[in-house]
Specification:
The protein is mainly alpha-helical. The protein contains 15 helices and no strands. The longest helix has 41 residues. It starts with 5 loop residues before the first helix and ends with a helix.
Length: 356
C-alpha cells in the first residue's frame, strides 16, 4: 500500500483528525484539475514565441505587444526602428537563429511535430507504467520533468544557443514527460469516483484543458517583452510547483488513506455504510480487510491490451472523433497566435474599420 502524502499527514496532525471521504474527493478534484491545467499551460509557450523567433520580415514596429496582450483590433502604421534602440530590443525584432532564416517556419513546425510525436508515443508507455507504479510519484515525476525541459528550452535564450538540435531535443524530451499527465489524472479520478455522477464530474473537471491553455497564453505573453526565454521559464516553473503540490497532497488511491475502493472487485467484501458520502471515520473492519487484500486489490489495476480496448463497443468511433478534434485543436493551439501576429492585425483592423 502506498505511503500517505506528506502534506496530508501534516494537515492530519495539525487538525487532530482526518478528512471525510467527501473532502478527500474535493481535494482530488482540485489537485488533479490544477495538475492537468499546468500541463496544458506548459505547452503554450511555443505558440506564443513563434512570432518572436520568426518575426514578420515586412513589419518592424517599436511597439512590442504580443498576442493576446496586444491591441489586435487597432491598426498601426509600420515604422522604421531607430538606430538608438538598444541591442536587446533590436534582437527581439530580428528573430532568433536558426528560426529567423527562410526555412524558419519549417523548423518551427518540426519542433512541434517532434513534441507531438514523442507525446503520442509516450502515451502508450505512460498508460502501462501508471498501472504498475504509484500514480502520485509517477505524476509528480512527469510534471517536474516537463517543467525542467520546458525551462531548458527557454534557457537557450539566456545561454545564447542557436543550435537547432538543442531545441528539437528539448521538445522531444518534454513531449515524453508530458505524456504522463492524461493517463495519470484520469486513473486517479477513476480510483476515487465510481460510475455514479461520473459524467457530471468529468464534464466540469475537463475544463482544466481550456483553463490551462488560457493560463499558459497569459503567462507566456506577459513576460515576452523581457525576452522570449521567460515565456518558457514561467510556465515551466508553474508546472514544477504544481508537481510538488501533487506529491504533497494527492492521495492517488482511496485505500492509501483508509477508504474503500468505489469499484471494488466482487470477491473482495468490504462492509461500508449505505451512504458512502457520509462516511467520515474508517472502521477497523475496513482497515483490516484493506490491509489483508492490498496485494489482491492492486491486481485489479492491470491494464488491458490495445486489441482488447478496441473491441470495447464505442471505442473506435470515439477514438476517430477525438483524433480529428485534436487535429484541429492542436493546429489552433500551436499556430493561431503566430498567424494573428503575422497577418491577423491587418485583417482584423480592416474588418473593424469596415463595420464600426
Amino acid at each position: 500500500m502506498s505511503r500517505n502524502p506528506p502534506g496530508i499527514l501534516l494537515i492530519r496532525s495539525i487538525r487532530g483528525r482526518d478528512w471525510s471521504l467527501t473532502t478527500y474527493r474535493h481535494v482530488v478534484l482540485v489537485v488533479t484539475f490544477i495538475a492537468y491545467a499546468a500541463y496544458h499551460a506548459s505547452r503554450k509557450p511555443p505558440s506564443i514565441v513563434k512570432s518572436v523567433l520568426y518575426p514578420d520580415p515586412k513589419v518592424n514596429s517599436t511597439e512590442f505587444r504580443p498576442w493576446p496582450v496586444g491591441d489586435i483590433f487597432i491598426k498601426k502604421e509600420p515604422t522604421i526602428m531607430s538606430s538608438s534602440l538598444d541591442g536587446d530590443m533590436l534582437r527581439r525584432h530580428q528573430g532568433w537563429a536558426p528560426f529567423d532564416e527562410e526555412d524558419g517556419t519549417s523548423k518551427l513546425g518540426e519542433i512541434d511535430v517532434a513534441f507531438l510525436a514523442c507525446y503520442s508515443i509516450g502515451m502508450f508507455v505512460a498508460g502501462h507504467l501508471g498501472d504498475k507504479l504509484d500514480l502520485r510519484v509517477f505524476l509528480t515525476t512527469g510534471m517536474v520533468g516537463s517543467g525542467i525541459f520546458v525551462g531548458l528550452f527557454g534557457m537557450g535564450y539566456f545561454w545564447n544557443i542557436h543550435a537547432f538540435g538543442f531545441y528539437l531535443l528539448m521538445q522531444m524530451l518534454a513531449g515524453l514527460f508530458q505524456a504522463t499527465g492524461w493517463p495519470s489524472v484520469v486513473a486517479v479520478i477513476g480510483n476515487w469516483f465510481g460510475k455514479r455522477k461520473r459524467g457530471l464530474i468529468m464534464g466540469i473537471w475537463n475544463a482544466h484543458t481550456s483553463i490551462g491553455n488560457i493560463t499558459g497564453s497569459l503567462l507566456a505573453a506577459s513576460v515576452l517583452q523581457h525576452g522570449w526565454g521567460w515565456s518558457f521559464i514561467l510556465p515551466g516553473t508553474f508546472i514544477t510547483l504544481s508537481g510538488i503540490m501533487v506529491y504533497l497532497f494527492l492521495a492517488a488511491y482511496p485505500e492509501d488513506v483508509g477508504f474503500s475502493i468505489p469499484n471494488v472487485a466482487p470477491d473482495v467484501v468490504v462492509e461500508t455504510p449505505v451512504d458512502e458520502e457520509a462516511q467520515i471515520s474508517k472502521e477497523p473492519l475496513i482497515e483490516k480487510v484493506l490491509n489483508s487484500n492490498s496485494r489482491r486489490m492492486s491486481g485489479y489495476r492491470t491494464s488491458i491490451g490495445l486489441l482488447e480496448a478496441c473491441l470495447i463497443p464505442g471505442v473506435i468511433p470515439f477514438a476517430l472523433c477525438l483524433f480529428f478534434a485534436k487535429l484541429v485543436a492542436y493546429t489552433f493551439l500551436y499556430w493561431l497566435p503566430f498567424y494573428l501576429n503575422q497577418t491577423g492585425t491587418f485583417h482584423l483592423s480592416s474588418f473593424s474599420e469596415a463595420f464600426f
